[in-house]
Amino acid sequence: MKKQWIVLSALASVLAFGQTALAAENVQGENYNQKTVSLIEPAAVTEYQVTWNAVSGAANYKIKIVRVDSGAEIVPVIDLGTDRVFKDVPYLKSNTQYRVWVAAYDSKGKLLAQKVEVKTTAGEIGGIIRWNLGSLS
Question: What is the pTM of this model?
Answer without folding.
Answer: 0.66
